């Protein structure tokens, strides 16, 4: 049966190898089970509800990817989009989390339409490579600054007067550390929570240097144990390791689509769709190529259309369950590296996600000081592609720079992407190199300009 479903011999793999690969992928991405609840709880959502949505949504869509597409790719709520959802949309814009979920659902429908009409493929082809790389790097820095803030390793002064800001600029930022004139400064390392986060960051980085599988989850578990052992975290009463999930706490169908549409959240929906577009496409193509399923040089991507459709459906499905955007995880490459070649890898990982629901009480114990370092480390991993941007070509370098800089410094993924979409065609036109600009860049730039002028 497994041979018929997954063509194991054709892809030169075995049941044992696929199950080991699925376990490997699960271990490398299981951190999302406690990172998502911690992040979305900041947006006002219930931790238990988010955990249920994350495990259920990630598990079901991952199994669908394995059975329908036969790809060794696993899915769950994306880290960058979790951060965008919480800090930009809910906290930054004051949008209710139910309305934000409605925006996620709509973006999934838009994403599905773009996929079925092949517009998605045209957009991906039209966006220049430097922009695609810059989006990845910018999101990495955006995630990093959030991780630094949540861990307490970085402090932010929000109440700067014009005079204070002028003083900072005049002294080139050489103000006394910790003073009110400092925009960004080092946190209080004597604070036990900050010290624990710093330990988690360094310890996990050391594990990664040794190429230890599951470094993120090992680091988070060890840091959590230290937090409880030192009294910096407290066990709840009547604690149990295993428990039947309480679905009465779930946020099923609590999204508010009507408010998302009536509030004119076009920019937010566009941002969700745009970021997901490149995030998932890069992961799908990269992982399928590494697994030997796809061959970009020959233009062979068997099943890619199905994979993109499952990925798009996952976005709206996750919103219905109460989760932020579900997307293909780059950690799937770990399973491929361990020998995963078919959908059995994904099915194995998906089943483990569903089984994780039984350990909900244990997973929700992980404190912020254990999850914040993961954000910083994920940000560091997302820096690697920057070497492929040609900074000697100003028409490529400056738009990419604007994307990378504005995402963390304006605390908005949308602002960074928008700046790049405008600057790239503008610089190419002025340089007389319009032939290098794909036609789809012009309508995208116009859409962005309309957004900033009228909205």
Automatic annotation (TrEMBL):
Question: Any idea which UniProt keywords this protein has?
Answer: Cell membrane, Membrane, Transmembrane, Transmembrane helix, Transport
The subcellular localization recorded is:
Cell membrane
Look up and give the membrane topology term: Multi-pass membrane protein
Please give one Gene Ontology molecular function term for this protein: purine nucleobase transmembrane transporter activity
Cellular component, GO annotation: plasma membrane
What coarse category fits the chief subcellular location reported for this protein? membrane
- The UniProt transmembrane annotation reads 20-43, 49-68, 75-94, 131-156, 192-209, 216-235, 255-275, 351-378, 398-424, 436-454
Q: Which family does it belong to?
A: Belongs to the nucleobase:cation symporter-2 (NCS2) (TC 2.A.40) family. Azg-like subfamily.
**By what name is this protein known?**
MFS transporter, AGZA family, xanthine/uracil permease
């Amino acid at each position: 049966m497994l041979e018929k479903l997954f063509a194991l011999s054709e892809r030169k793999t075995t049941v044992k190898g696929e199950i080991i690969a699925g376990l490997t992928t699960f271990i490398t991405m299981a951190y999302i089970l406690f990172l998502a609840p911690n992040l979305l709880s900041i947006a006002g959502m219930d931790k238990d509800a988010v955990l249920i949505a994350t495990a259920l949504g990630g598990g079901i869509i991952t199994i669908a990817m394995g059975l329908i597409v036969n790809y060794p790719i696993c899915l769950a709520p994306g880290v960058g989009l979790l951060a965008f959802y919480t800090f930009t949309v809910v906290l930054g814009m004051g949008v209710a989390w139910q309305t934000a979920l409605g925006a996620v659902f709509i973006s999934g429908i838009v994403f599905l339409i773009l996929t079925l009409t092949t517009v998605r493929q045209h957009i991906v082809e039209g966006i220049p490579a430097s922009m695609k790389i810059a989006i990845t790097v910018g999101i990495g820095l955006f995630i990093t600054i959030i991780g630094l803030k949540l861990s307490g390793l970085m402090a932010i002064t929000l109440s700067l007067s014009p005079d204070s800001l002028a003083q900072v600029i005049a002294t080139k930022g050489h103000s006394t550390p910790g003073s009110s004139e400092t925009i960004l400064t080092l946190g209080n390392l004597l604070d036990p929570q900050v010290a624990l986060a710093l330990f988690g960051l360094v310890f996990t980085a050391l594990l990664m240097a040794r190429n230890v599988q599951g470094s993120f989850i090992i680091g988070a578990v060890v840091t959590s144990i230290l937090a409880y052992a030192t009294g910096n975290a407290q066990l709840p009463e009547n604690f149990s390791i295993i428990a039947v999930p309480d679905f009465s706490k779930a946020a099923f169908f609590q999204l508010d689509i009507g408010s998302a549409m009536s509030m004119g959240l076009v920019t937010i929906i566009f941002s969700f769709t745009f970021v997901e577009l490149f995030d998932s496409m890069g992961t799908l193509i990269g992982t399928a190529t590494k697994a030997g399923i796809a061959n970009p040089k020959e233009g062979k991507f068997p099943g890619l259309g199905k994979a993109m459709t499952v990925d798009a459906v996952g976005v709206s499905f996750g919103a219905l369950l109460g989760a932020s955007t579900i997307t293909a995880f780059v950690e799937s490459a770990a399973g491929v590296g361990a020998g995963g070649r078919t959908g059995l890898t994904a099915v194995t990982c998906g089943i483990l996600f569903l089984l994780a629901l039984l350990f909900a009480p244990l997973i929700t114990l992980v404190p912020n000081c254990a999850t914040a370092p993961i954000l910083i480390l994920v940000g560091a991993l997302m820096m690697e592609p920057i070497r492929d941007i040609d900074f000697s070509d100003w028409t490529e370098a400056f738009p990419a720079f604007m994307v990378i800089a504005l995402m963390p410094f304006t605390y908005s993924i949308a602002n960074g992407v928008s700046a790049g979409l405008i600057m790239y065609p503008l610089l190419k036109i002025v340089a007389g190199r319009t032939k290098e600009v794909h036609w789809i860049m012009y309508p995208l730039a116009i859409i962005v300009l309309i957004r900033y002028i009228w909205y």
